Queue: 3 jobs
Job 1
Amino acid sequence: MQALHFGAGNIGRGFVGKTLSQSGFNVIFSDVNQEIVDAINRNKEYSVQIISATTKNIVDVKRVSAINSNDSNIIKIISIVDLITTAVGPRVLDKIALVIMRGIKLKIKNKSIKPLNIIACENKIQASSFLKQEVLKKLPIKYHDYLNEYIGFIDCSIDTIIPLVNKKDYLFLVAEDFKEWIVNASQFKGRIPKIIDMKLSNNLNAFVERKLFTLNTGHAIAAYLGLIKKYKTIQEAISDEKIGFIVRSAMEESGSVLIKRYKFNKNDHLSYIKKIFSRFKNPFLSDNLERIARNPLQKLGKEERLIKPLLGTIKYQLPYSNLVKGIASAFFYQNLNDLESIQIASLIKKQGLKKTLIKICNLCENSEEVNSIILEYNSILKNS
């Protein structure tokens, strides 16, 4: 069994690639970073240190190779592999779609009827379905029937924390022992591959939003609030009593939406929040706040981790004061090395916060939530 994985970064190597290798796949990584490609091909393996609250152990990941994403030979690989996965970031999926389309065309030319399943492991709701639509846009209509019959695009929810580590050997990774990979069982073509730790579900949206509204919401708010106070890591931010309270409360506010929408058991979900919060506090998983905060335009989208739970609280008439604090801090975030941060700051300077809010988050102009965010932003501005 062969798998092609786009994105040889932390999640790609530290979770997806590792899991596929442990499941018996020969894993081919595709990445634009030639240094990583060369290192993988030179070593044919890499190591991941798995850390819990009390223990550490090393896992050696073997049966791996790599190819540059711009290498034309990747088209042939796509046409013959059994599985394709991605962990590149949602904004890169349209570029990958073009490469996948070309591989599918070669697969058709070779008259292959072997099913191919594609799982986009991204922080985006229904990322694989989005990728499918991007591929269909590029694939000639006469091949659409083939794609619908033999190519599966499987939506998933993936949850683990793999921080950056400052080591000379950049193939070495540190990962937490907590991991969750839930997939939509109905979207596979052919036989469902046996992948360790991968759970099949017929109610994926609930799990996708649970992760997005809890881990991603809490992570982002901790980062933006922490950076205001000049903290460097997630542990420093969470250890600040005031920030910790806001983050925990914001996750409970977003959790109240999930409880209402999906009929989650309240005590079970509060236990899930507690588990996520304890993962943030793990000193062995020191994650950089600037890494977590990057790409604020994406994080402030209407379907994303900050605005979507806020809209849920409004729909169900639930409290949202701590979510608003997180959103306001995201608009306050400024980083000269982050183009999206610069874009937001430029928009605020040119047209003011209110118009910027409405444009980026697609919120109603004279709504209570817009006024609440503006008040909180001005409070941050005054006290910073």
Note: The chain has a mean pLDDT of 95.
Job 2
Amino acid sequence: MNPFIPIVLVICIYLSGSDSAGLEGKSLIFPEQTANSYVRVFPSSFSSLTAFTVCLRAASEASRDYSLFSYATSRHDNELLIWQTADGHISLYLGGIVAKFSLPKMDALLRHICIAWESKEGSVTVWVNGQRSLQKVGGKGQFVEGSGQFILGQEQDSVGGGFDKGQSFVGEITDVHMWDHVLETSETELISEGCFGTGGNIINWGTTYYRSAGNVRIEDNNDCKV
């Protein structure tokens, strides 16, 4: 018998800029204002959307305006933008602004946010921690074009770029999901109570590929409810 047993040492290194699959149980931490820190998310492909629901958890103490969710195409740099203001307003852009909601100011506590829109009636609704806002009308008859780029942490002034340090996100984002339809009220309430619920069919936090750049920390998320 050979007394020497070979030992194989495997070292796994995450390289910024490489693609990885899924962020289940993870949060993105953006510790400071930059013009080059972001996470690109690679969704399931779609040609166009006439309805969607976007949900995420976020916390920020930034006392200025910033992007929570940015999707840009060659047609519009704000093809789908969720914009947070310092005074608590959340605005939905579909090319241009279509609806603005007055909500409690963002703070250090993670909150669950969902925005649902459908084109036929132009109905827009925001949910915060499972509570529904009043419904507004905007973007009636519009659509969201496919083949663009989804970016977390920055607002795009061109597809995949044109970042402005003063509009960057500082804080924590997790549990980002997107569906190609408006969720039922009961579904939205259930998703707000746990970390995942039913994963999005366009963006699913647990399985969708992503790529990080700049100063973004990916940390374990202990906020999940079992």
Note: Residues 1-16 have pLDDT under 50 and may be disordered.
Job 3
Amino acid sequence: MSDLEPLAPREAVDLYLDARQDDATEKTIEGQKYRLRAFIKWCEEEEVENLNELSGRDLYAYRVWRRDGGYSGEEIAPVTLHGDLATLRAFLWFCSDIDAVPDELPDTVQLPTVNGDGEVSESTLEPNRAEAILDYLGRYHYASRMHTAFLILWHTGCRVSALRGLDLRDLDLDGDRPQSDGPGIQFVHRPDTGTPLKNKKRGERWNAVSEYVADVIRDYVENRRVSATDEHGRKPLITTKNGRNSRSNLRDLLYKVTRPCWYGEGCPHDRDIEDCEAANHRRSRSTCPSARSPHDVRSGRATYYALADVNRRVVSDRMDASEDILDKHYDRRSARKKSEQRRDHLPDS
């Protein structure tokens, strides 16, 4: 049974823009209002009268429509498409928070990465950037909630919903449980108490973790974790003063730490950081072209495994995704890189 509450697109946009009055400038709100007009126009053309009906496929159709000249009548530049989709995703997060769309829907809006030549490639978190972020977190925010959450997401490649569902009882940091051969984390499907796994019981698994990851989690639990019990009497691993972290809170955490200006690398987009909305306003973090979503972190980890030639069946089991899904949605290696890696496995090549 769905917990979603019906909401018309135009009404939802009005609510979103009103909420932005609290943390955005008038110029920013006007820009978002303009970009969301295109989405309203698309909804009218497609006869979408209730946001509950939207799917990831619908949002991809909107992306193609907008890219090819929907609303404006002319094809738009990649940087404009990026801005439109970033605004749409922020709007959908708001809709998720007020129970108008499923929690996972905003993450289906994949932002294109615009390179120096204005060309577009699919968004991901490159492994070297992930390592830079982890180095910064380990140096300046060791065993914090941010450090622990990002470390688990990157190290296991799990979905943000799986991270959110972890309890203290799911940890085996000493590797002393029966049949254990080292530290690990267990992902468990618990739909009756609010934390289902995407693939339900089939998605349940143990993920081995390194001694370093286990040490960070242990230090977080013993020294930094907010002691909390959720409404079902469970003890979540990642907590706030209000209990178990929400999906939107965890998504926002990722947008915060993946902005280069946050971890000391300046702005690669030639923005004045003091005037940048993405640098200074929480709700605008996702509009930074370098900010990355949970899906981007997951695709980055899958790409890392692919570059390291890790057995695809092992990756499939660890990340709870079929090999076909890994190839289609998560592997961000270039065609040239794939060819070079195949060469190493072929005779006389």
Note: The domain at 9-122 is CATH 1.10.150.130 (DNA polymerase; domain 1).
